[in-house]
Amino acid sequence: MTDLWEDFYLTKSDLDATKKIIADQHFGPEFYRKKTDGLIKQNGKMIRAALTILFGRYAVENKTFVNSVDIESSTKKIRQAAAAIELLHLATLVHDDVIDASPERRGLPTLQTSFQNKDAIYLGDILFTKYFQMLVKIAPDISFIDFHSRFMEKILDGELKQDSLRFDSDLTFENYIDVISKKTAALFALASISGFWIGTAIKEYKQISKNKLFSTINDFGKNIGIAFQIIDDLQDLDPKVYTGKPKFEDFKEGVYTLPIIIASSDKDFKKQIMDNDKFDRKKLEEYFRSKPEILKKTLDIGYDFIQRAQIDLDKLPVINNQIKSEVQKIIDIIKDQLNLINTTSI
Q1: How many of the other CB atoms lie within 10 Å of CB of 210?
Q2: Is residue 237 part of a domain?
Q3: Of 2, 47, 216, 339, which is the most exposed, with the fewest CB atoms less than 10 Å away?
């Protein structure tokens, strides 16, 4: 794939170093090694890692936190934090692939395709342990580990809540935002805050959480994460976009995305499609092609969360123009994806 970070002067070198840290992680006995090594080296977009790096750099250069800091040591820890976040993300994807019976991930066969479901789950669990092992090495205080464990609990709670709402034809927008805030958005927020916390050299949670920048960066990550998920929801409608799994597979499994929730206000949709025992992918595609207003409503909500993230970024004092410029570029990348969907017909 084209290097997303080619024009990111600061982020690119840090991400290259982060990829090396990730590539050096091996998991599973020798029998599994070839497949697991291939998966761990097949990096995704790494937006979460980039947020960890940028907010870590932002904190290092903010002299209100520390007057003197070992930049080389801090940079190393920030990169390790970014690698840990990517390992956490990959672990959740391995488990998702088992649940969804996905054949591919990032252009490669999934672990559950190559091995038994049981083995894939164990391999995902090993990634979780590697994530925590990496955190232990860089944690400024035990409260940093506790903070991550509480976010992990939030993410798992979101998964369980989503599962409890399967096939609920009365699912509300509020339900959707609650689930996404605990899943996708929580990981973006965790990535952003982790970099910031490591970069400040502040030890305890009770100290760092008092800083107003902490909540602003947390909100930024959450809002970017929700917008990111809405893009994923929209791409599931578009037959021209390859996502690694069949279109409307979430719908088939009873996981209703934002466009589906918006469409459910249409009584005919609920009667003819949602209440139909026989899943019909073609009928779904035809319905959404005939209802561009659903696409527009979904896009408008995505743009709203992008704007919220923009407001959060604008609240942050400018410490380094290049850092803030590269965070801005991440907003623009996600916004451009919404614009692309907006200019192509489903």
Answers
A1: 10
A2: yes
A3: 2
What does the block give as tokens for 112? 């559950």
Residue 180 lies in a domain: yes
Q: Decide if 339 is inside a domain.
A: yes
105 backbone dihedrals φ, ψ, rounded to 5°: -145, 120
Percent of the chain's residues with pLDDT above 70: 94
Q: How far is Cα 266 from Cα 287, in angstroms, rounded to an integer?
A: 11
Using alpha carbons, select from 206, 163, 198 the residue that is nearest to residue 182: 163
* Domain harbouring 199, CATH code: 1.10.600.10
- For residue 232, is it within any domain? yes
Nearby residues of 145 by Cβ (< 8 Å), 6 or more positions away: 132, 135, 136, 139
Residues 6+ apart with CB under 8 A from 275: 169
Contacts 24+ apart (CB under 8 A), 65-72: 65/199, 65/200, 65/201, 65/202, 66/200, 66/201, 69/201
Number of structural domains (the chain) is: 1
CA triplet 282, 160, 250: central angle to 5 degrees?
10
* Torsion angle of the four alpha carbons 118, 124, 129, 133, in this order, in degrees rounded to the nearest 10: 150
Q: How confident is residue 114, by pLDDT bands cut at 50, 70 and 90?
A: confident
The CA distances from residue 164 to 152, 175, 230, 256, in Å, are 18, 11, 21, 12
Could you tell me the pTM of the whole model?
Answer: 0.92
Which pLDDT value is given to residue 346? 52
Q: Give the span between the Cα atoms of 312 and 322, in whole angstroms.
A: 17
Alpha-carbon gap, residue 189 to 174, rounded angstroms: 19
46-97 pLDDT, tens per residue?
999 999 999 999 999 887 776 556 778 889 999 999 999 999 998 898 888 7
